[in-house]
Amino acid sequence: MKRASRIAPHPFDEAIALEPRAASADTPSVDSPVEFEGRTHPDYANMVGPFGGITAAQALQAVLQHPQRLGDPVSFTVNFAAGLTDGPFRVEARPVRTNRSTQHWMLTLWQTGADGIDAVMLTATAVTAVRRSTWNAVDEPMPAVSSPNEVLSAPVIDRVRWVGRYDMRLVAGALPLHWDDAEADSLTQMWLRDNPPRPLDYTSLTALADAFFPRIWRRRARMTPIGTVSMTVYYHAGPEELAAVGEDHVLGQARSQSFFNGFFDQSAQLWSEHGHLLATSHQIVYYKE
Amino acid sequence: MKRASRIAPHPFDEAIALEPRAASADTPSVDSPVEFEGRTHPDYANMVGPFGGITAAQALQAVLQHPQRLGDPVSFTVNFAAGLTDGPFRVEARPVRTNRSTQHWMLTLWQTGADGIDAVMLTATAVTAVRRSTWNAVDEPMPAVSSPNEVLSAPVIDRVRWVGRYDMRLVAGALPLHWDDAEADSLTQMWLRDNPPRPLDYTSLTALADAFFPRIWRRRARMTPIGTVSMTVYYHAGPEELAAVGEDHVLGQARSQSFFNGFFDQSAQLWSEHGHLLATSHQIVYYKE
């Protein structure tokens, strides 16, 4: 069989592809919203609907593709108002305030229900900024762990398709071997990269921030139903630092601080192999019982 | 002099008082936005404009006063798009998605400029929820520190008025004695409460999350100009747990993970005196040079 001369696009790039809607694309004046069309991608399917990390990446992509964008992402908060259904969606990115070097964004993502009514599925806010060189420091150094080549590549769970889109190499804090309510800590460390490898950018870094299995599963050793409600990512890297990572693994670490009456938090860090803290991320997750 | 029979309102309650605007108050249908009027309060003035924590509390109050609110705050993200000027503002709270037990909010706060044009000064998103009793755990136990009665009450900085509205009792991680660029860690622990004391609620807890002096001042021992860009608060307490705190101090802890090209992060915890982790909070802060 003859091999295609053109390399097929990476599934991640297929997934985050957005098309500007004609009506909004015609009005590229300053501070005007632009609406994009996208759709869920079968390769990033979760148990029900898509992996939250890919949805977050799709929303951020609307900011990145907006013609009036100023600078690069500094902060991004995405609220999962409802589980997306497989199929198309619309996402609007609106620059509500543009300052000299920072810009503030509000986003809304809708899907049309079986009843023909548009429903809000996701809201988000973002801050982009033109960064300047300053005094820098890292107060959360990368833990001393084995290199990705020394760690076995194995999916932590393989019941859902999106997990196959990541190369996950567990360093510490696996899923329980036995779901026996034997409580443990909530810490997991693993090397992560896209599968197949893909050069790191802001969208894939955002998805990686959500790639940890639910902390409560490890903490409690019980298969508790969960759903992320809100996730924030702070970016501590410019385009040059992301380009320097390329297709290398990044080290991810995640843990919780509180599990209280139906909601637990997760704080995560993502470092480059060379120890640059690329992003810190936080989320609050609904759990049942 | 005869004492007034009626106790004067607490300055915090004066500051967060909002009036629904007539037009929006007439339309209390489901999912309709309600617009409120408020104003900055001189007791919570910062060097320029108001203390960010009081502005965040004012925005959250718009959600709490909305007639269609479902449940209590679980997550709140506030983006400071521009520094408020002293005077009136308008804030709109819009419930964009109401589920069975959770509700998603988008907020915008405007001020009218000297040019007569309304400008977005702040955006926010919030999630409220009806919480149910579940299995609970805390993985960030309160540090072993001296009780508030054993620690001297002293403002960490007193050049700005809002600091006088808090009783701050420093446990660890003071401001540098000498601004000599002698680098240190970024950790501060202190007992905090309103001054005069006021029963804790979601709004005052939100303000407390922003009451730490800038991490970079301690980390770097240099008076670097800063401004918070975005703050997220996760609430790990219901109204009963807040009521149990009453007018007691809460223990606050804050530290940074990354200072990179103009933006540093801060992660904070707030515990009750009895060790209940009431809230975890994160922010990203602009710094100059």
Q: Mean pLDDT score of chain A, rounded?
A: 93
Low-confidence stretches of chain A: none
How large is the radius of gyration of chain A?
19 Å
Give me the CATH architecture of the largest domain in chain A, please. Beta Barrel
Q: How do the helices and strands follow one another from N- to C-terminus of chain A?
A: HEHEHEEEEEEEHHEHEEEE
Name the biggest interface: A-B, 63 and 63 residues
Multimeric status of the protein:
homodimer
- Please tell me what the overall shape of chain A is: globular
Terminal Cα separation of chain A, in Å? 54 Å
What structural category do the secondary elements of chain A indicate?
Answer: alpha+beta
Count of discrete domains of chain A: 2
Strand content of chain A: 35-45%
What percent of the residues of chain A sit in helical stretches (DSSP H or I)? 10-25%
Number of strands of chain A: 14
Number of helices of chain A: 6
* Sheet having the most strands of chain A: 13 strands, antiparallel
CATH superfamily of the largest domain in chain A: Acyl-CoA thioesterase, double hotdog domain
Classify the fold: give the CATH topology of the largest domain in chain A.
Porin
CATH class of the largest domain in chain A: Mainly Beta
Name some characteristics of this structure.
Porin, 6 helices, 289 residues, homodimer, 2 domains, alpha+beta, 13-stranded antiparallel sheet
